[in-house]
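note to self — DONT lose this again. spent like an hour looking for the file last time. sequence + predicted structure for the chain T wanted, 432 res
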Amino acid sequence: MRIQIHGSELAAATAAAALSWVGHQVRWVPHASMRWPALQAADWLRREPDLLERLEEGFEQSNLSLANGEGADPGERIDILWLALSPEQRDEADELVAEIATRQQGPLILVNNSTFPVGETERLEARLGGNGRRAVALVDMIEEGRAWASFTRPGRWLLGCDDERAEAQVRELLRAFNRRRDVIQLMPRRAAELTKLATIGMLATRISYMNEIAGLADSLGVDVEFVRQGMGADSRIGYEYLYPGCGFGGPHFSRDLMRLADVQEASGRHSALLEQVLDINEQKKETLFRKLWTHFHGQLEGRTLAIWGAAFKPGSARIDHAPVLTLLEALWAQGVRVKLHDPAAIPSLRAAVGDHPLLTLFDGDPYAACDGADALMLVTEWKHYWNPDWPRLAELLRERLLLDGRNIYDPSHVASWGLTYRGIGRRADAQA
């Protein structure tokens, strides 16, 4: 098929790479805010396994071409118009669809892979002007850090479609990624759009609820790990998204959650639950700071803190809405010097906060950040932080304090090395 993809989101880059890889003729139009040279240099794209290599392979084999600023040639006919735009680019999507509908005669399928308001796919279809042209909602299921794998070996595709011919064409479009079993879950367009937002809301609610339980466990002297395991063993609950921590972030998770809140408000149905979820998450981003404050009885000025991890999750170079941003503001307000290590997110952090006199950044040896620090705070659970050299840490940290924002360490094991452990609802005297 002849496909034109618009957008500079991770979803757009992944679709361009994957669809051209299986033989479709793809013309990719990155958004004006981030053309190909900027995308090619972006850390978040370069760190996606296989993705940049597959894009370059598509260019070499001529199945993939770039259009910087212009769409298809006036005489070129396309079968699929694929939109993977950010919510802020909604008005541009309107203009783009209208322009292409005017230029091209005959059938056309619009695949809306953007996170737009509920009902937007239907509205975009109206802009196509009829004549056998249809719009479908293909929910963005891309997982940052494994975008290529999640597109080419999907657990499911969530397809919002109200037309049999459009469904058949989308199934053909994705056939190479739908062979092992039928992973396409079909439903009406509005239902698919709302399902994406509702799923994000449910996951966020589980995280925030578990963080509330962790706070209660702290107050009652209970190790929350026992509680987590007991809850997860209940088949009605399960273990997914049941890990307490210092808050969630990320460009897509946080944005989609806010989109759900907007949908609620626009419908006139204020959600007290969703408001609480958002409030709890913002509070949890300060949890580690409060534990540090309590340990040192509020005497933080002049101290030095090592932080491991800035990215909103392991495998990403992004810091959008990440807990580390809230932590840094609180720490600097108290005059705390921060020595921060992250293997991928240092450029993003430097761009976000600039050169701060109380911040030193490291992307090489993580122990360099600990040298001369009073305490270590784990914020992002990169795998190479999971099994540190405990004797070395005990020697480097002047106050031998470890604050575990992701509960990845065993409290008793940490204590056995002479370190003081502070987790999220964890206790050093428990054996969970």
